[in-house]
Amino acid sequence: MKDPSKLNFDLAIAEEICERLATSNDGLAKVLRDLRAEGRANVPSERVVYYWRAHRPDFKDAYKEAREMQGELAFDEACRVAQTPNLGQIVTTEKRDGKDKGDAKGPTVKSVRVADNVERSKLICTALWQRARVFNRDLAESVNVAGVPGRPIEHKVDTDAIIERIVKNRTAAPEPPRE
Questions:
Q1: How far, in whole angstroms, is CA 167 from its chain's centroid?
Q2: Could you point out which of 45, 84, 115, 178 has its C-alpha 20 to 30 Å from the C-alpha of 8?
Q3: At a CB cut-off of 8 Å and minimum separation 6, what does 156 contact?
Q4: Amino acid 17: pLDDT
Q5: In sequence order, what DSSP letters do the residues of 68-89 get, joined into one string?
Q6: Per DSSP, what are the bridge partners of residue 112?
Q7: d(CA 155, CA 79)
Q8: Other C-beta atoms within 10 Å of 52: how many?
Q9: Alpha-helical segments (H) within 84-149
Q10: Would you give the distance in Å from CA 84 to the centre of its chain?
Q11: Strands 87-95 and 108-116, sheet pairing
Q12: How far, rounded to the nearest angstrom, does the alpha carbon of residue 17 sit from its chain's CA centroid?
């Protein structure tokens, strides 16, 4: 691989990368793969994008903002998943061994019931919460996902704190340009 410092910064590609990150839950590798699949020229490797981020303050700021926006998308998606039932079949099997009172020794018993697939929803929701917390510091300090063994997971969201931080960060006076 070429030394990333020898590769030219491409503003159009950099803007496209940030736009796609900000408007989807796709990771950097998938965004770059999609750009290549579309036949775009000069699509950098992940290593080059990380080099741009480390050595170009303008790109670093744009990339950070794109990831923060992606965190907000993940937060919204986690809320949607948490509120949407996901009906599916829950299949359980039990082998009868005759040890329980009134239980005859016999073949495996299979039961099927249709219910909300809570376990799957918890996994998806927790993954999205984590992603939101990683990419958006406003959410990181205001969202707690906790649980007690044997009890449902509790989601505690301080929405007032989230809104206050987002508004504060968006209305803060911009920093003077760097020379």
A1: 22
A2: 178
A3: 143, 144, 146
A4: 96
A5: HHHHHHHHHHHHHHHHS--EEE
A6: 91
A7: 10
A8: 22
A9: 118-135, 137-140
A10: 17
A11: antiparallel
A12: 17
Q: In tens digits, what is the pLDDT along the chain, a chain of 179 residues?
A: 556 555 689 999 999 999 999 999 899 999 999 999 999 988 999 999 999 999 999 999 999 999 988 888 887 777 777 777 777 777 778 776 656 555 566 666 678 877 776 776 777 767 766 766 666 655 555 555 555 555 555 555 555 666 666 666 655 555 555 54
Q: Which two tokens stand for residue 37?
A: 């699949």
3-state secondary structure of 157: strand
Residue 151: both structure tokens together: 């009890």
Look up tokens 């990181």; give the residue: 140
Q: What is residue 26's predicted lDDT score, i.e. its pLDDT?
A: 92
Nearest to 43 by CA among 5, 10, 1: 10
Structural contact between residues 48 and 4, judged by C-beta atoms closer than 8 angstroms: yes
Place of tokens 């700021």: 61
Q: Report the distance separating Cα 159 and Cα 175, nearest Å.
A: 27
Find the length of the chain: 179
Name the DSSP class of 137.
H
